[in-house]
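User: My collaborator sent over this chain with a note saying "see what the structure looks like." That's all I know about it. Can you take a look?
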Amino acid sequence: MSAADLATKLSNLVGSDVVRSDAVSLQAYSRDATPMFEGLPEVIVAPRNTAEVSKIVKFAHDTNTPIIARGAGSNLCAATVPLNGGIVMSMTKMNQVLEVSKSEMIAVVQPGVTNIDLDELVAKEGLRFIPDPGSRNVSTIGGNVATSAGGLRGLKYGTTRNYILGLEAVLGNGEIIRTGGRLVKDVAGYDVTRLLVGSEGTLAIFTEITVALAPRPEASKYGVAYFDDLASAAGAVEKIISSGILPATLEFLDNTCVVAVEDFAHLGLDTNAGALLLFGDDGDAVSIEQSVNKMAEIAKLASGARGVTLAADIAAADALLYARRCSLPALARLSSMSILEDIAVPRKAMAEVVNRIQDIGKKYGLRIGTFGHAGDGNLHPTIVLDKDNKDEVRAAEAALAEIFALPREFGGSITGEHGVGSAKLPYLEDLIGSTNMQLQRSIKKVFDPAGILNPGRIGS
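Assistant: Without extra context I'll predict from the sequence alone. Here is the result:
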C-alpha cells in the first residue's frame, strides 16, 4: 500500500484532522532523543480515544502495517524511531487526567499526560507522583510506563513499575483489555500489568493508566560532597547505605561532568574534584535533618573527601539538584553530538566500571563523561563527539560495544532505566541468554500475532 493510500484509509477511518503525511511532519517524527538513529514514517495519526486506537491497530493488523506508539519522543534508546516506516501513533491528544482520588491515593490518566503536569496537579491534594525521570518536564506517563522510567528517586522509592496499578491497553489485533485496577493487593491470574510495564510498545498500546500516588513530604534537604576520585565517592556511598540510611537522592558526577556543569551553570562547584556526590532525603523535618546530617558526617570522614556543603535553603537545594539534572545539556555543549547511554552494575563495582569507561574513552580518543545514580549503580556514560567526523562516529560505536559488554562481566544490565529500544537490542541476547530471548519472542506472538507493534525491538 502506498503512503498516500495509507493516509487516505486512515483519514476515512478516524478523520483527516488527526492524520498527517506532509514532509515536515514525517521528518519531525523520524527520530526521538537518541542520536544516530532515524527512520521516516509513512503517516502520523493522533487518536483521541481508546476506540480510535483500537480501530487504527486493527487496521494495521489487517494490512500488516508497522505501528509505533509515541509520546513526547524523549526516550534515549531509539524505541520510537520508525525504522520500518509505517504508522507513528502520537498519543499526545489523549492527555487528560480522568480522576484523582485522595482517599485511595490513585490517579487515572490517559497516556499523553506529562509527568510534571500530573505531579503538579496532585500536589494540590498533598500527594505526589513518585517517578522522576530527568525529562519529567516533557515526558509522558505512557512513555514512562513503556520504559518503566527511573530517575533520581529510584533508590528509596523504586521506579515507574512500582506505581502502576492497572492498565487499559490495545493488543496487536485491536482488542481492548484491562489489567489490574485500583487495588494495592490483587493476585488474580498472571500479573499482566507488570509484564506490560517496560515492554516498550511491543506488546500493547496503553490508553488508560491507573497510578499509585504517595503523600507529599513535609520537607527535603540536600548536600554535596567532593572527593579526590570516584572510588572514594563510591566508598562513601557504601558507608551511607550500610549505616541504615536509604536516601531519597544519591547521585554522582565525574570530573568531566563537574567541569562541564560548572562552565554551563556557574554554580560554584569544585572543578578540581575527581567526583561529586549529591545526597539528600525527604520526609518529616526532624528525620531528614538527622539523616542528611549523618550522611554529611559520613562523607566528611570518608577516604579522599575534599569537602561537604549542605544547602542552606530551598534555592540552594534547587541549585544542587539542577547540577545533576543539567549534566546532559552541559555535556552536549562540548561538541555537535552527545550520546547518553545507560548501564547498571552492582554498587560495589561502580567505581571500577567508571574507571573502565574512562579507559575505553582514552583507547578510542573520545571524551566520555559519566554521571548517574550512585545509590543503585545506574551509570550514564555520555560520549561527546563531532557528528560530521566519520572516524569519531566509528570510534564511538566501537566504544559503546565495549561499554555494553561491561555489565555482563560485573553482574549488571545493559539498561537500568532507558530501555532496550534499537540502540541496545544487538546486546540483549548476549545478556539474557538464548532461551530467555526465545521466551520473549513467544510472549510477543501472543500479544501481537502479526508482529506489527514496534517491530524490530524486544521480542522480534
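A starting point for your reply to your collaborator: DSSP finds 16 helices and 19 strands in the chain.
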